[in-house]
Amino acid sequence: MEKLARKQVQALTPYLSARRIGGCGDVWLNANESPFANEYTLNLNSLNRYSDCQPKELIDAYAAYAGVNPEQVLTSRGSDEGIELLIRAFCEVGEDAILYCPPTYGMYAISAETFGVESKKVPLTAEWQLNLPEIERQLENVKIVFVCSPNNPTGNLVNRDDIVTLLEMTKDRAIVVMDEAYIDFCPEASTVDLLAQYEHLAVLRTLSKAFGLAGLRCGFTLANAELIQVLLKVIAPYPVPIPVAEIAIQALSPAGLARTKFQVLDIITNRAYLQAGLGVIPGVTVFDGWGNYVLIEFPNGDELFKAAWDEGIILRNSPIANCVRISAGSREECEKTVAFIRNYYQSVTANNN
Fold first, then answer.
1. Is residue 47 domain-resident?
2. 145 pLDDT exceeds 80?
């Protein structure tokens, strides 16, 4: 079967999601999931019928939440499908490329590789900001530029002035995709307002993080109506199952939004607890973060990651040397994680002495 697969697929290294990596424990802070498991009611009387391609009630609800018009919204199976739709719709195989800025979310490159589209890398600066001169130098044949803010795994926000400069730079050349999977934790930093000025801007959103619906697989692409119409040409006929739409609509109701707002404040408080609790450990660097996670640099990150793993505390190792990403879970999970790491370094110090 491997020989029958397309050459690009044969050579492909799949994205190692938190679930693929696995683990065995009682503290799961590796996938940036919400610690809140909310309850929903379902009407299952119409499962013999196909769902609408773009359920109107769901589209209207998210448009109202995001502050855009319904014709500027497309819903899909998570924002991961949004990434694939954009590449399929705008990139010619063997001619066009995407450009992304590591360290960042790994699915941009893997989705492009899956479709046989070239990927260009322009690493972020030492401050984890866009290297605009290098991006401009590499724009030839680039159809899509992916930017993640808050960035995963670093947690920082990309400078808004740089985003505007990038949008000006790419006019009539490429689509700029702002991945705002974590924007619900800092809505004031959204770039949705720039849709009014830039027809080549697309914004990715999801219900997986702040809304606590990672298992639902419901995402959104926000863009101008013309761009949305292009994506509708390549999306599957029935991308949103009926139960998914029902639950998403409930989550976006006034009561659902009020609950999410309260839970986001709780998660932000627990993120601050992680930052404060780990920041006092000698030799540990805690980076500012705006999502529901923090990036921590340890003196020996890989060893710390494995020690926590063996203890049943499942964190996420990072492509950045000695850095570990830790989701802001429940207070109990955060307390257990901070206590373990403190004890671990006290033990290491005592053994070295």
1. no
2. yes
